[in-house]
Fold this sequence. Notes:
Layout: H1 6-71, H2 74-77, H3 86-96, E1 103-110, E2 115-118, H4 123-136, E3 144-149, E4 160-168, E5 175-184, H5 186-193, E6 201-207, E7 212-215, H6 226-233, E8 238-244, E9 249-257, E10 266-268, E11 271-278, H7 279-282, H8 284-311, H9 313-330, H10 345-356
Parallel strand pairs: 3-10
Antiparallel strand pairs: 1-2, 1-5, 3-4, 4-5, 6-7, 6-11, 8-9, 9-11
Helix pairs in contact: 1-8, 9-10
Amino acid sequence: MKNxxxxxxxxxxxxIMGITPSLLIMSIMYxxxxxxxxxxxxxxxxxxxxxxxxxxxxxxxxxxxxVLKYSAYSxxxxxxxxxxxxxxxxxxxxxxxxxxxxxxxxxxIDNNRNLLFSYRPNFGTLNKIDLWWEQALRLHHREIxxxxxxxxxxxxxxxxxxxxxxxxxxxxxxxxxxxxxxxDLSSLVKMIQTIPISxxxxxxxxxxxxxxxxxxxxxxxxxxxxxxxxxxFENSKGWLQGFDPLMKAYAVFxxxxxxxxxxxxxxxxxxxxxVSRKKExxxxxxxxxxxxxxxxxxxxILLILIIFMFRIEAIWKPIFALKKGAEMIGAGNLDxxxxxxxxxxxxDLAQTFNSMG
Length: 357
């Protein structure tokens, strides 16, 4: 039967011995290279997250320094004393907004929770007095507190930075009240969005409550899912793999913590920068490399198979001749003589066959 032919058995053996090692070698190469690529991708994303966190840290330090400077002005402190020239102090506070375009509001609140001054008094400011007061109660002597303040769900405003600092008397160094400074983070968001990136990945700045302060991903949400949030805040910096709920795909994350301001006693939220890149995109080069290697490997195997099929005739034809000769002798033709000249064991077998005949 044809499927029992030595010729086809040799071809199958060649294919098994050629394809199996090739696939094994390519698998080893794929997993080895993909592991290195994974580590390199994570390391690069971590570097980008660190560079972004440094920029955010400089922005934060600049704003805190400005607030410290504002809270030290004697003209501002006069608003805490009865009979002070409120119009002059108010005009002075308004002049501060000419030097810092990110200032959104400054509120002065005394120790009895009374609102003494607000640059932009509105219903939202009145609602936030209780929140600011609760935050101010956590402050110790000469501490500063900062935290991100998300807008209402129905609002299209950007995230705000709230900085609370005590106001100390110049006479007896006692606390007169505190100042709540509201800073617009639009310029910070623009700064992050101008960081050059290409491909399917994005940069995000989040706080420990899961509020998304800034994100370069177009289809962003206002909050980070709890699973991803826990994932990112387990360590201060590094990289990891996981499911990205924003892109709905598995991704590689590089992340770093925004460094704290070292020039003053500071309490506040932990801010984290993380960079997410689709794992599919990150591994695309190794995928196409594997496809090329597979195509080249299959091409080489096909070429060798063609050469092998031509060369196998030198083995198969003498065996086929021996088979036919045996059939003819079995049919009574004892004068049958085989002429096989291969210079190997097949030729010796043919001569023995002739002698037997």
